[in-house]
Amino acid sequence: MKKRTQKPANRRTPKAPPVFIKWRFGLICVFIGLAFAALVARAAFIQVIEPDRLRYEGDLRSVRVEEVHSARGMISDRNGEPLAVSVPVQAVWADPVTVFKHQGLAKKDRWYALADVLGLDRQALIDKIEANRNRRFIYLQRQVRPAMASYVNKLDLPGVGLKEESRRFYPSAEVSAHLVGVTGIDGHGLEGIERRYDEWLTGEHGKRTVRKDRFGRVVEHIATEDKKEGQPIALSIDQRLQAIAYRAIKQAVADYRATSGSLVMVDVKTGEVLAMVNAPSYNPNNRGDLKSFNMRNRAITDVFEPGSTMKPFVVLTALENGVADMNTVIDTGNGIMQIGGSRVRDVSKVGKANLARILKKSSNIGVSKLSLAMPVETLLGEYGSFGLGASTGVELVGESVGIFPTRRRWSDFERATLAFGYGLSVTPAQLARAYATLGSLGVNRPLSIIKHEGVTEGKQVATRDNVYKVLQMLEGVTQEGGSARRAAVDGYRVGAKTGTAKVAVAGGYGDEYIGYTAGLAPISNPRLAMVVVINEPQGDKYYGGQVAAPVFSSVMKSALQILNIAPDAQTGPGLQVAQRSNQVDANE
């Protein structure tokens, strides 16, 4: 019997103990140490040495700077009545990237509702968003009223937001439009006072720096920069007089089918402009009505030959230089005076007349003889001293200084025509300043459109005695038999001079006329100077005494009553010059 061989038991072979290799362990430790050192160095570099870059990148994602809107300063008249105010509105904007990210255009009914409330074409609005799909900001509509903005907000369109703005509102509308001006869509002045004093009115917007989370919620207020409100301006204009003057000019332009009309009223004592209007005008609240033809302030931009309104200054120059006195008699002949190859004519025969009658009858021959009796530089110097050929002082954009002749050689006929207002051109504002200087007994003050406290110091450019004599003569022009009797005002002593000139065209004169009237009231103590210009009236009436004088009378009467100036019709013209001078000294 064979013995079985016994198999050995299944035993696990013992593993060899791990071999510790020092150089490998050291190498790994070195690499780990270097990596750790690099991380520490990088962290130190980022956090300590140069942290600005990452901070900048982080701020780009969370920090936002919001503009704190400041209102534009108010413009008011001399009595505090608002002429231009800022009202809060909203701008509707869109972020096309966000719109497409949230598939915002899928809700077409809401976008159509947005277009309807903003007054936009539906498809045009959709096309605008698609055309700017890579932009982060576009305006959809500016200066939206609060009620419309509230509706837009309720539409809850992704990527559509509101931004605070302000819109200029003009309570007086077309009445003061040429003077006050208008602002553009971005709130900066385009015309008039709005443009001239734009920096003063604008102020500075504030800033608010905040941090927002991913949902657009403010989580931190970082900094605030206070806003600086625009400064208000009080004009010298009296809105009551402005409204009366505008209605009168607008009616006259319509009645006589004239191209345009202008009126300027000045406070004789201070040189402040109390009214400055033009027709046609425009409504600055309606931007669709902004046409350059209507927006021009003709009272300071348009020039015309002043015609017979220059005759009082010729008489004054003759008195000042001893060429004539109150007893001088000038023979105007049969109403026609030959000068070289040209003729000077009078509308009616005056015959032999003193200075008062020459002025009353508006004799071209009479003032021509006075002009020819003195150097031309003397007459032009007197014109210039009364403010002709220079800026009036209102400092409005677009003001013209007129056309003041300067020649080396003058013909006798040219010297004669200068005496009755041909050969030079002035603006209505310049003529108003000249007559205001007459009213202040020869004290020339610059005009001001800004309200001033007290009396602006002026320059004495003529003798008070002689100026007062001319004022007395000027009063006679509005009395029975005078050329400006339609400019008279019941109950008041008024001095005025009418004029009519042909419109200058290339190479001579056209067939159209300009009628105007300039004057003062009350003569016993002049307070108001006024100029009325009616440009190119149509029909049979075109003389200044027919179209401009009635406007002068109507507006002057209302102004004297509104300003509570006492009637002086009973004082008579017999006041002594010395007494009158003392009164003016006391008032100034």
Automatic annotation (TrEMBL):
The active site is at S308. It comes from the Bacteria. Keywords: Carboxypeptidase, Cell cycle, Cell division, Cell inner membrane, Cell membrane, Cell shape, Cell wall biogenesis/degradation, Hydrolase, Membrane, Peptidoglycan synthesis, Protease, Septation, Transmembrane, Transmembrane helix. The keyword Transport does not apply. InterPro entries: Beta-lactam/transpept, Beta-lactam/transpept-like, FtsI_transpept, PBP_dimer, PBP_dimer_sf, PCN-bd_Tpept. It is found in: Membrane. The keyword Transmembrane applies. Catalyzes cross-linking of the peptidoglycan cell wall at the division septum. It catalyses: Preferential cleavage: (Ac)2-L-Lys-D-Ala-|-D-Ala. Also transpeptidation of peptidyl-alanyl moieties that are N-acyl substituents of D-alanine. SUPFAM superfamilies: beta-lactamase/transpeptidase-like, Penicillin binding protein dimerisation domain. This is Peptidoglycan D,D-transpeptidase FtsI. Belongs to the transpeptidase family. FtsI subfamily. Its EC number is 3.4.16.4. Residues 261-557 form the Penicillin-binding protein transpeptidase domain. It holds the Pfam family PBP_dimer. Residues 69-221 form the Penicillin-binding protein dimerisation domain. Pathway: Cell wall biogenesis; peptidoglycan biosynthesis.
